[in-house]
Write a structure and sequence with these properties.
The protein is an alpha/beta fold. The chain folds into two domains: 110 residues, Periplasmic binding protein-like II (D-Maltodextrin-Binding Protein, domain 2), CATH 3.40.190.10; 171 residues, Periplasmic binding protein-like II (D-Maltodextrin-Binding Protein, domain 2, 3-Layer(aba) Sandwich). It has 13 helices and ten strands. Helix 2 links the parallel strand 1 and strand 2.
Length: 366
């Protein structure tokens, strides 16, 4: 009887100790912070809006493809929106990133990618084996080939204000245009009236067609038309920077737009982190693939091992000026009626230059 009581006492003691221990452990666990949830494995959806063109969606995806390979959790969509060019609020809602015109220092914070809308000098290697260094070279080659009957034109340039404005790019310089407008009109007058090298009223489509068909050795061409020329001419297409004006040696200064990639707005944490990672990728690695994927020259210094085409485009971009679009549109509107009179011989180079300088009276900006 005594031994049975002792056994029961030890059993009761063990059960009581277990109950106390369980109560203390439960209380301690209840006071701990809850365990963090496991990391999310759901995809991160990123959207990019771009204002270049509808055809630019796929090349931009190709540029960003290595980033997606490095971050398999990210899914990317790219769409075109013309309104994103000005960075309007409507374009900024919804997408995580926007590829649009930077407008210089007025819109800091983006990653500059490439320049667009500037002009270069294209030459046909079958007709002219080496790039010309001066306008004298261009005129001599063009005139000789035309006189021989090899080509009907020595050089083609689009008589559209956006393509002509680079000849008057010094209008936007802080120091003023100086004598550049007169020298530019004098050169254009010689090409048209003195040597008869340019066709009259030839617009952008006309320029591309004439040059593709080998009917002119040279063309002043917008970089946005280069994919078409590459496809048509292949290795016969040569590119170089437009030579300085023959008078005082002023550079032809194309008016360009600089496109940059911006964070567009607020979003959940994982999406913001992915957007920032994509911006870092573009800044560090994207420039090396711009020519191959987008056909654009990088804004950063180009390596000596780059192709001749990339070096030429980079050199042309260096000479270019970035001007707010409102000023560009105003200058084009001022040039249009002056050019119409000049191209038909009703206004001299001197008179056209004076009229243009007077019409573009807004103080120049850097």
């Amino acid at each position: 009887m005594d031994m049975g009581w002792r056994k029961n006492r030890w059993a009761y003691t063990a059960v009581g100790s277990f109950v106390v221990l369980a109560t203390v452990l439960g209380y301690w666990l209840s006071r701990r912070d809850p365990a963090p949830p496991p990391p999310s494995t759901s995809p991160v959806e990123l959207s990019v809006v771009q204002s270049v063109s509808e055809e630019f969606n796929e090349p931009l995806k190709e540029l960003l493809r290595p980033f997606l390979e490095q971050h398999p959790e990210v899914r990317l969509s790219v769409r075109y929106d013309a309104h994103a060019r000005e960075g309007s609020d409507g374009a900024a809602r919804g997408p995580h990133l926007a590829l649009r015109v930077s407008n210089g220092s007025a819109t800091p914070g983006g990653v500059p990618l490439f320049a667009s809308d500037y002009v270069v000098l294209a030459y046909n290697r079958d007709l002219v084996p080496e790039a010309p260094k001066t306008w004298r070279d261009i005129i001599a080659h063009g005139y000789t080939l035309k006189e021989k009957g090899t080509v009907p034109y020595g050089i083609v340039l689009a008589e559209e204000m956006h393509s002509l404005l680079p000849f008057f790019g010094d209008l936007f310089q802080a120091g003023g245009p100086g004598d550049t407008p007169r020298e530019a009109f004098a050169l254009l007058s010689d090409l048209r009236f003195k040597y008869g090298l340019t066709p009259g009223a030839c617009l952008s489509e006309c320029v591309v067609q004439v040059f593709k068909e080998g009917r002119a050795p040279f063309a002043v061409i917008g970089e946005w038309r280069l994919p078409e020329l590459r496809s048509a001419l292949g290795g016969k297409l040569g590119l170089t920077v437009i030579p300085a004006l023959p008078g005082g040696g002023a550079r032809i200064r194309p008016v360009q737009r600089v496109y940059a990639l911006f964070r567009a707005g607020e979003a959940p944490k994982r999406e913001l982190e992915a957007a920032d990672a994509l911006l870092r990728f573009v800044e560090k690695e994207g420039s090396s693939r711009l020519m191959a994927t987008l056909g654009k020259a990088a804004l950063q210094p180009v390596a000596a091992s780059a192709s001749a085409e990339e070096l030429a485009l980079a050199a042309a971009s260096v000479d270019a000026v970035e001007v707010p679009e409102a000023r560009v549109r105003a200058a084009e509107a001022a040039l249009a009626p002056i050019w119409e009179q000049f191209a038909t011989g009703r206004l001299s180079a001197e008179g056209a230059a004076r009229s243009l300088v007077a019409a573009v009276s807004t103080p120049a900006q850097n």
